[in-house]
Amino acid sequence: MQKPKLGFWDIWNMSFGFLGIQFGFALQGSTMSRIFETLGANKDEIPLLWIAAPLAGLIVQPIIGYMSDNTWHKRLGRRRPFFLVGAVLSSIALLFMPYSSEVWIAAGLLLVLDASINISMEPFRALVADKLPESQRSYGFVVQTLIIGVGTWIASNLPKFMNNTLEISNEAAPGVVPDSVKVAFGVGAFVFMASILVTIFTTKEYSPEQMAAFDDADEHEEKKGMWATILSTYALMPTIMKKLGVVQFFSWFAFFAMWTLANPALTEHVYNAPKPDVKDFAQLDDNDEVLLDANQATLFLNQAAQDDYKTQDKAYNDASDDVGSKMGIYGLSSMIFALALTFYTAYNSINRKFVHMASLTLGAAGFLLMLYIPGQPDYLILSFTLIGIAWGSILSMPYAMLSSSVKASKMGLMMGVFNMFIVIPQIVAALSGVVFLSSLIGEESIHAMTIAGIFLLLSAVSNLLITNKNAITYQPSIDNE
Q: Where exactly are the transmembrane stretches of this chain (predicted)?
């Protein structure tokens, strides 16, 4: 029994919640390192502070995948209960994040935020495969990528918009996150909740009986417990998943490097506006700690030192706003790429492997270009445009290739297990992987972006491992008779 094909707006509505999910991820990716630097973290410490994010994914994704495969609520269905729970928890974490007073508090909230986002995100990946026939799955994942691109672009521009358009200050006392960032995270929390509710209210899921009929499932298949099922899935993962895992490893290592270190690297190398160390301008005690007055305000050496700190800090905040805005371009270009791919794949077959390979190569060029543009931030438009093409492909092609080889009854679990190949490279990168490899090239922080470019090239070449014809060749989603 075949699933009926869905129209564009049905696919759009079922994927719309990803707008909110991407608001959470984009605010985190474009602003989290800025928050860590503001709270006093050294730039070399930032990747390790981010480790909570991939650790949350490693633990949460397969568990939520299994649970959503085996859940049925008579009103909310199979996946939508997880959308709702994740949205509530993520919105709360987004609201509190910019009010962190210590680095460890921000790192803890990042763990909560990422765990919560994963509760919503993995069932969303599985929903595309649940609802769409094989012929429409690439189409569905590309539409999802289109919405992700919109969310990335808008959310990354929010702090700059708050400052430049709404005139909400991007300046603050040492160790305090600016109001423009606080308001941006508040908007992100609202959009997260609202967009998830759109999907919940507009999308109806197939019942377990209908899914079994579509999947031609073996009704006598042995049922195992959650941990036994997850462990057996890891042990028996299909070959195509392992090969795609190599591609994913290099891709996600590169993007983790960007999310964690693009702000310190680009504010320093391209804008010549690194985060000033308040200790260079303030009075210090015998333990080399900044002295505070009765109101807990920093005691500067003198008025000139205070003015100099404020000038440099404003330059850093302005540069950070612009870095975030420029990073949003990768969301915009991924959106345009996804839109073009949506229209093309609606009527034509594509070679998924070569599309992904070419896209990753262009993204690598975008990262490598950054080394050669000190003092020329306008060139970042080109860099992030190319990176966005890679991002658009990363969010669609691997999932489309994988879904061709996975049973619908285990789609949520398989998507969760597959994301092991997303979180492990991020954990490796966080455990000094990026810092160590970039230090082999040079001490400048921009070399983290050079490493990202090299790893995307390795990811592109790794596509040559994929030989499964069913995964590689995509048939058009709309009959062209």
A: 7-27, 47-68, 80-97, 103-119, 139-156, 183-201, 244-262, 327-347, 354-373, 379-401, 413-440, 446-466
How distant, in Å, are the alpha carbons of 197, 338, 412, 467 from that of 146?
19, 5, 21, 27
Phi, psi (5° rounding) for residue 232? -70, -30
Residue 77: phi, psi to the nearest 5? 85, -145
Contact indicator for 13, 396 with CB cutoff of 8 Å: no
Q: How many degrees, rounded to 5, is the angle at CA 19 between CA 95 and CA 55?
A: 65
- Please state, in angstroms and rounded to a whole number, the distance separating the CA atoms of residues 344 and 340: 6
* Cβ neighbours for 331, distance < 8 A, ≥ 6 positions apart: 22, 26, 148, 149, 150, 151, 152, 153, 154, 155, 156, 388, 391
Strand, coil or helix: 474: strand
Longest Cα pair distance anywhere in the chain, in angstroms?
81
The angle subtended at Cα 257 by Cα 254 and Cα 261, nearest 5°, is 155
127-149: burial string, b at 16+ Cβ within 10 Å, e else: bbbbbbebbbbbbbbbbbbbbbb
Residue linked to tokens 């060749």:
473
- Topology at the third CATH level for domain 10-210+234-474: Growth Hormone; Chain: A; (1.20.1250)
Structure tokens at 266: 């680009």
Beta bridge partners of 96: none
Domain ranges of the chain: 10-210+234-474
For the chain, 481 residues long, give each residue's pLDDT as a single digit of tens.
Answer: 677 888 888 888 888 988 999 899 899 988 999 999 999 998 889 999 998 778 877 777 777 877 877 788 778 888 888 889 999 999 999 999 999 999 999 999 998 998 888 888 878 777 877 888 877 776 777 787 778 888 888 999 999 999 999 999 999 999 999 999 999 999 999 999 999 999 999 988 877 777 777 664 444 445 556 556 555 555 556 777 888 889 999 999 999 999 999 999 999 999 999 999 999 999 998 888 999 888 888 999 999 999 999 999 999 999 999 999 999 999 889 888 877 877 777 677 778 888 899 999 999 999 999 999 999 999 999 999 999 999 988 987 887 777 666 665 555 566 667 777 888 899 999 987 899 999 999 989 999 999 999 999 999 999 998 887 766 675 554 443 3
